[in-house]
Amino acid sequence: KFQHNRHLHHYFQPRLQAGLRYWEGRIDRCSLIASSRSVRRRRGFQPIADVAHYLGDALKIPVSLDISKRRNQHQSHQNFKERFWQMHNALEPGRNSRSLAGQRVLIVEDVYTTGSTANEAARVLTRLGASRVDVLSLVYRPSNLDEVVVA
């Protein structure tokens, strides 16, 4: 992801900038799913964090790691059904997460394929008290995995 190039998030900024007006006043915080420790060590950074911080700064709202992945297999070589079921209970509240009572949260993620990660993340955030959860994905990869659509 991001080919170990931290600056690729700038590619998405014009589209993100165009959508900022939509999100103003509709969300209270941006949340992202923390990469596993081994992935963070290998990459040296968390690619989607730069995008989330760009949105948070522009909207003047906090950005937080409210969700962590439990250790599981990489999804890149799995089919739709395997991806979907692997994510069930694969996410948990992050180490520093706290009550989100009544807050409207925007999950910022990199790739949307089956929706299972977004669905599971929304479940965790609503358990923490979020009143509304929306998802912003940079790339949509249809379940047939033959094409990729960039937001």
Give a quick precis of the structure.
The protein is an alpha/beta fold and 151 residues long. It has helices spanning 13-23, 37-43, 47-59, 80-86, 116-127, and strands at 29-34, 63-69, 91-93, 104-112, 132-140, 149-150.
Largest sheet: 6 strands, mixed
Average pLDDT taken over every residue: 80
Instruction: Please identify, by name, the CATH architecture.
Output: 3-Layer(aba) Sandwich
Q: Tell the overall outline.
A: globular
Overall structural class, as computed from helix and strand content, comes to alpha/beta
> Which H/E pattern describes the elements?
HEHHEHEEHEE
Q: Approximately how much helix is present in the residues?
A: 25-40%
Explain what the structure shows.
This protein has 151 residues and is an alpha/beta fold. The chain has a single domain (2-150), classed as Rossmann fold, CATH 3.40.50. The chain has five helices and six strands. A six-stranded mixed sheet has the order 3-2-1-4-5-6, sandwiched between helices.
Label this structure with key terms.
Rossmann fold, six-stranded mixed beta sheet, about 150 residues, 5 helices, alpha/beta
What's the layout of helices and strands?
Blueprint: H1 13-23, E1 29-34, H2 37-43, H3 47-59, E2 63-69, H4 80-86, E3 91-93, E4 104-112, H5 116-127, E5 132-140, E6 149-150
Parallel strand pairs: 1-2, 1-4, 4-5
Antiparallel strand pairs: 2-3, 5-6
